[in-house]
Write a structure and sequence with these properties.
The complex is a heterodimer of chains A (341) and B (446).
Chain A: H1 3-39, H2 44-71, H3 98-105, H4 114-143, H5 150-162, H6 165-175, H7 182-189, H8 201-229, H9 233-241, H10 246-274, H11 278-283, H12 294-303, H13 308-333
Helix pairs in contact in A: 1-2, 2-13, 3-13, 4-8, 4-10, 5-8, 8-10, 10-13, 12-13
Chain B: H1 2-20, E1 60-66, H2 74-88, E2 92-98, H3 101-113, E3 120-124, H4 128-133, H5 151-156, E4 158-159, E5 162-163, E6 166-171, E7 174-179, H6 180-183, H7 191-201, E8 207-210, H8 220-225, H9 243-258, H10 268-276, E9 280-286, H11 290-293, E10 308-311, E11 325-333, H12 341-354, H13 357-367, H14 380-383, H15 386-396, E12 399-400, H16 406-421, H17 428-445
Parallel strand pairs in B: 1-2, 1-3, 8-9, 11-12
Antiparallel strand pairs in B: 3-11, 4-5, 6-11, 7-9, 7-10
Helix pairs in contact in B: 9-17, 16-17
């Protein structure tokens, strides 16, 4: 990294920041004139505050989503590598719902079908979220009491969350090396044979889970710890007076009162794990299709096989799956009604 | 609140100061005097003497993406080349960016769609397939003189009779390297000799044969050695479920599980590291590592020096000579270059400069790669060097790598099969059948 490269990078970033600052200032100016001076609405302040974020989301998320939806109705690929325009109608690239149908009827990658990938993804998500919640709960309960050095333990447990994820994954991948990785060296020291973490389908899946659990427990622990802190001790005192043991208190008091905190955390955890491309991508170094989940298969379909139209349709199928799950979960469990009704 | 406004103001001021300190990337410079083109007439007709023409005026800031990395000094060679060209033509500057081969392909496709593609690529021949399918690169028949290149090298980047790249190095073939301290001085003549030598060396923490067990590129020579090929004669129908493929798979399986002369698990970096550290008797690797492996042991990037042996892969018992793919490194121009006549002239001129005899001899001396220039490959610097002679012998046994779009599907299908094989799966028929159906399925979806 030379000084020239650093200076060039700062210049480019600085220029971009200036442009953004000017654009935001202009937007706020227009909104002020419109909402404060013109309409004199009481919503002026909140609207002015959220406007830059809204514009940013519209540019960075909404517009690409709409473009992707557009591409999903076309046969854009390397053989048809051009801007499709509106639904590909002008360029003869329009294929209607063919891409959506092919997601379910043809192998997504070389041999793996959508259904196999869905099963792998559900398995991956359920195992990870279960272990995240269980592990996070256990650690949170351990830390939610008077003890010496609590701050240090908390800091150490949060450390995986603090390390940039890609760095952590590259290190984990190295440690899964059959001959030179720490995992197998420890196993051999304990008298076991080494495990082919990167080349065997079963063990590679396990390796992915181990890594993701290590990464995900801190988040869940922090959320649950916050929830535990908000539960009044009077409930536990009352329960103790009524003769309840710790297990009964956990079931009758802790869990219900944690539900408003746990529910969004589980929903978030499920969506993030379902969509987690980093861990499977980096740990599945050998691109085993048995270790692919929906989003990694989507990535490879788009950027390795250049099937852009198919990939766009596939992306929306995944989006709809997650949307249905979220709506169903919230309605079915009624979890967001709150535990005080 | 007041403190937050002060902080925000400070940040804004800092950004403005940084932006104001920018000298800008496009400050005007005095236009260079018009100079004759340096390296020959860019015409399809072979010519003995270059035709002088006026070099375009104005500033040209060219972007070149290169697959060459710093580890083996090849990126530095790229830089030397572009700096030398800038010294000849001060109005032409280069921004040189290194990208991994796959990243280069993906990013070039994306950048082309966005209208922001680099002007020049230094990349591999098999990118011809996706780039010509997507119409992203410029045909070069009218811009460079094909007769200056090694015919086989030019053929590697010819599709439908059109030249799409300028060969910078020719070869890219897999060959056999050996550590003479562990494997002896002489090259093994047959695979039986080879395995016997590997077994003797596979002891005391050393391995007999190291190679990348995760990529199908390392399967290809043995497929050819057993009489197979990846495509039928039409060049697009995959032929992976064949006796030749099953024999090749069995041969590799035996190396690892029956003869037990390979590491338990090895990707490219592990194999390369083992050999450089002197812990592998043999390695199957490409000619691109010849420079690194032959470097003196006490140098900045130590290699094996005089202990290195190089030659083609030994003849297979019950088969033929293995047939590695040959390709090389090539310059390509993005399609957009053709929209500007002056820019096109500059890019063509640079390509001819980079591929002239002097620079090609330099690539031999610096990187130990076979040149793509027809004169340079006859130079005593190639013919008189035993290591390069070994590399050239290996290249002669190779076959041109297919560059069509279907090849990607074939490579990916074979890679999945190879990885399955090295988990201990000895159902060779099942693996070859999976490869066949995987490649067919992928090709059907292209």
């Amino acid at each position: 990294m030379s000084l020239d490269a650093v200076v060039t990078a700062i210049q480019q970033v600085g220029l971009t920041l200036i442009v953004i600052a000017i654009a935001v200032a202009a937007l706020e100016g227009v909104l002020y004139l419109l909402l404060v001076r013109g309409l004199k609405t009481r919503l002026a302040t909140p609207l002015m505050l959220v406007a830059p974020a809204f514009v940013g989301l519209a540019i960075l998320i909404v517009y690409p989503l709409l473009w992707e939806l557009n591409v999903s109705f076309t046969n854009m690929s390397l053989r048809n590598f051009r801007d499709p325009g509106f639904l590909g109608l002008e360029n003869g690239m329009f294929v209607g719902l063919d891409n959506y149908v092919e997601v379910f009827t043809r192998p997504v990658l070389q041999l793996t079908t959508f259904w196999q990938l869905l099963l792998q993804t559900v398995l991956w998500t359920v195992i990870n979220v279960t272990l995240h919640v269980a592990g996070g709960m256990a650690l949170a309960l351990l830390l939610h009491r008077q003890m010496r050095g609590k701050g240090i333990y908390r800091a150490l447990i949060i450390l995986p969350w603090a390390i940039p994820q890609v760095i952590a994954l590259l290190i984990w991948r190295t440690e899964y090396n059959n001959e030179y990785g720490a995992a197998n060296q420890l196993l051999r020291m304990a008298g076991f044979d080494g495990v082919p973490w990167l080349s065997d389908p079963f063990w590679n899946f396990i390796a992915m889970i181990i890594t993701n659990v290590w990464l995900g427990i801190p988040f869940m622990m922090v959320i649950i710890l916050g929830g535990l802190s908000s539960i009044s001790s009077e409930y536990y005192e009352a329960a103790e007076m009524d003769g309840a043991n710790s297990r009964q208190s956990f079931r009758a008091i802790t869990l219900p009162l944690l539900r408003p905190v746990l529910t969004p955390a589980i929903i978030l955890g499920t969506v993030w794990t379902f969509n987690n491309i980093n861990v499977p991508f980096f740990i599945n170094q050998n691109e085993l299709e048995t270790s692919d989940i929906l989003v990694t298969a989507l990535f490879r379909m788009a950027f390795q096989y250049n099937r852009y139209g198919d990939a766009a349709a596939f992306a929306f199928v995944i989006f709809i799956i997650l949307l249905v799950f979220t709506v169903f979960y919230v309605r079915r469990t009624g979890s967001l009604r709150g535990a005080y009704e | 609140m007041k403190n937050r406004y002060r902080l925000a103001s400070l940040v804004a001021a800092l950004a403005i100061v940084v932006g104001a300190c920018s000298t800008g990337s496009s400050s005007p410079t005095a236009p260079a005097a018009s100079q004759p083109a340096t390296s020959g007439a860019p015409s399809g007709a072979p010519s003995a003497e270059p035709t002088e023409m006026a070099f375009p005026e104005g500033d040209f800031a060219l972007t070149m993406w290169t697959k060459e990395g710093e580890a083996d000094g090849s990126f530095q060679f790229n830089k030397k080349l572009t700096d030398a060209y800038t010294a000849l033509h001060p109005n032409v500057t280069f921004e040189l960016v290194n990208k991994n081969v796959e990243v280069l392909r993906e990013d070039f496709q994306t950048a082309s769609l966005a209208g922001d593609a680099p002007h020049i690529l230094w990349t591999v021949a098999d990118h011809i397939g996706p780039f010509t399918s997507a119409d992203l690169i410029l045909p070069l028949d009218n811009l460079v003189d094909r007769a200056t290149f090694v015919p086989a090298a030019a053929e590697a980047v010819t599709a439908d009779g059109t030249l799409w790249g300028v060969p910078m190095s020719f070869g890219n073939q897999l060959m056999l390297y050996w550590n003479k301290d562990l494997a002896g001085d002489a090259a093994p003549a047959t695979s039986d000799d080879w395995i016997a030598a590997a077994k003797s060396a596979h002891t005391g923490g050393n391995v007999g044969i190291a190679f990348n067990q995760t990529e199908s590129f390392w399967l290809v020579p043995f497929l050819g050695g057993f009489g197979g090929s990846v495509f039928a004669e039409d060049g697009v129908t995959p032929t992976l479920d064949t006796d030749a493929m099953r024999s090749a798979l069995e041969f590799l399986y035996d190396l690892k599980y029956t003869e037990q002369v390979t590491p338990a698990e090895a990707d490219y970096d592990v194999a390369d590291g083992l050999f450089k550290e002197g812990k592998a008797a043999f390695i199957i690797n490409g000619d691109w590592t010849l420079g690194a492996y032959s470097a003196p042991p006490d140098g900045e990037n130590p290699g094996l020096g005089d202990k290195l042996g190089v030659g083609p892969l030994p003849t297979l018992t019950g088969g033929e000579d293995p047939k590695p793919y040959i390709a090389g490194a090539f310059l390509m121009a993005s399609k957009a270059v053709g929209d500007d006549a002056d820019l096109q002239t500059v890019v063509a001129d640079f390509m001819q400069f980079a591929s002239n005899k002097d620079n090609q001899v330099d690539i031999v001396q610096t990187l130990k790669r076979l040149p793509g220039n027809a004169e340079a490959i006859e130079d005593p610097i190639v013919t008189g060097d035993p290591l390069l002679a070994g590399a050239a012998e290996a290249a002669q046994k190779g076959v041109p790598q297919p560059t069509n779009l279907e090849m990607r599907c074939v490579f990916d299908a074979m890679t999945a099969g190879v990885r399955d094989l090295f988990t201990g799966n000895n159902d060779f028929a099942g693996i070859s059948a999976s490869m066949q159906s995987g490649s067919e399925s992928c090709i059907a979806a292209l």
